[in-house]
Specification:
Layout: E1 2-3, H1 10-17, E2 22-27, E3 33-38, E4 41-43, E5 48-54, H2 58-64, E6 68-75, E7 78-89, H3 92-105, E8 115-128
């Protein structure tokens, strides 16, 4: 099933609040896929996926180049993939939103002076929640 972010129902939002890790796929400079496990949060109001990381991570460097990315979570037969334009930010307010979302879904992360965030502006959702 493919849906637009504006069509997200309560079942999808509930699945996105459950404790599940996911895989993040970004593109390396040579165009090859970089796939890593991540914790993430989804803000339905702004339709944004947020992932906390550190400034020297490959996923952050990939996000700084822009392009598209996808985050996918699976739980048995239920799965969701959220796709969109990716960016990286070190803006304290945006990083704080990413930390807040992570803490609400998983646990409070430890402090890091080099904390940054990867953001995906979601424009497509596929799956079965």
């Amino acid at each position: 099933m493919a849906i637009t972010p504006g069509e997200v129902g309560d079942d999808v939002l509930a699945f996105l609040r459950e404790y599940h890790l996911a895989s993040l796929t970004t593109s390396r400079a040579d165009g090859s896929p970089h796939v890593v496990p991540v914790g993430f949060s989804y803000d339905d109001t702004s339709r944004t996926v947020r992932i906390i990381t550190f400034a020297s991570s490959q996923k952050y460097r990939n996000a700084l180049r822009g392009g598209r990315a996808a985050v996918s979570q699976v739980d048995g037969g239920r799965w969701l993939t959220l796709e969109g334009t990716v960016s990286g930010t070190d803006d304290p307010a945006r990083v704080a939103l990413a930390v807040e979302g992570y803490a609400a879904r998983y646990r409070q992360p430890g402090e890091r002076p080099d904390r940054v965030a990867v953001e995906i502006a979601v424009d497509r959702i596929m799956g079965r929640a």
